[in-house]
Amino acid sequence: LEKLVRRARHVEVQIMGDTHGNVVHLFERDCSVQRRNQKVVERAPAPYLDAARRTELCDAALRLGRAVNYTHAGTVEFLMDADTGKFYFIEVNPRIQVEHTVTEQVTGIDIVQSQLRITEGARIGDEHCPVPAQENIRLNGHALQCRITTEDPENAFTPDYGRITAYRSAAGFGLRLDGGTAYTGAVITPYYDSLLVKVTAWAPTAQEAIRRMDRGLREFRIRGVSTNLQFVENVINHPDFAAGTVTTRFIDTTPELCKYTQRSD
Q1: Mind telling me the catalytic residues?
Q2: How far, in Å, CA of 41 to CA of 8, rounded?
């Protein structure tokens, strides 16, 4: 039997291990905003964790990593009961994940570069490794990531395809874009993932990060295919998201997120 968590939050801890037996954590990410168990918006740090629970969660991830002599990047995933605060292990993803950018923004650690240096034999905490010792890894500010896709939220999130007739992305301080093949004239086919670009916003406070992301999303102009831009705008501007109280059922139980007026400009 598995534990039933009726009101769950999805929280995961980023760990890094070298080939010399050292394992550290890069704190946690909240991934509760998801649809059909696929993440839509991620943020770091998790807004509902206090210092004691954060330490408990990260220590659990470290114990697991050390027990299996884990090396390189990995994500230890948990479900947290929103009513009791207890957390339960789900799985380990032994790879870099789509949402690793929010951890990079709040820790200043290049996770991709760290993978390469560790493979070359670098030791965590040494000057040749991008990953410092645990006591020197600190949280700085808040970050969130939105995945911009060609899904149509008004049509049951059916992926759209065709030619992009116009493409303009956001820019400015605190915004990071990890793009794929989205550009004016690009042909989006139905045979691959619908992800166009990942947008990550950073700011000193959680509310400022949300406002910066909102501004970035509104700067995008994508024509020729349907996108989820206005849907994710609704998500991050919802009061429950701002308050950090959403659970994994948030999108399913909030149909108004899919209601908006199409942009005319």
Answers
A1: 39
A2: 16
pLDDT per position as a tens digit, 182-237: 999 999 998 888 899 999 999 999 999 999 999 999 999 999 999 999 999 999 99
**pTM for this entry:** 0.94
Q: Is residue 95 classed as helix, strand or coil in its secondary structure?
A: coil
> What does the alpha-carbon distance between residue 27 and residue 43 come to, in Å, rounded to a whole number?
12
**Do residues 239 and 177 lie in contact, with contact meaning Cβ atoms separated by under 8 Å?**
no
Name the DSSP letter for residue 186: P
* Banded model confidence at residue 265, pLDDT cuts 50, 70, 90: low
pLDDT band at 2 (very low <50, low <70, confident <90, very high): confident
Q: Is the pLDDT of residue 262 over 80?
A: no
User: Whole-angstrom Cα distance, residue 204 to residue 202?
Assistant: 7
Instruction: With beta carbons less than 8 A apart as the criterion, state whether 15 and 58 touch.
Output: no
Q: How far apart are CA 73 and CA 43, in angstroms?
A: 18
CA nearest neighbour of 40 among 157, 203, 190, 167: 157
Q: d(Cα 179, Cα 186) in Å, to the nearest integer? A: 13
CA dist., res. 18 & res. 11, Å (int)? 24
Q: ω before 130 within 30° of 0 (cis)? A: no
* Residue 155 to residue 23: CA distance in whole angstroms: 45
Contact 109, 26 (CB under 8 A): yes
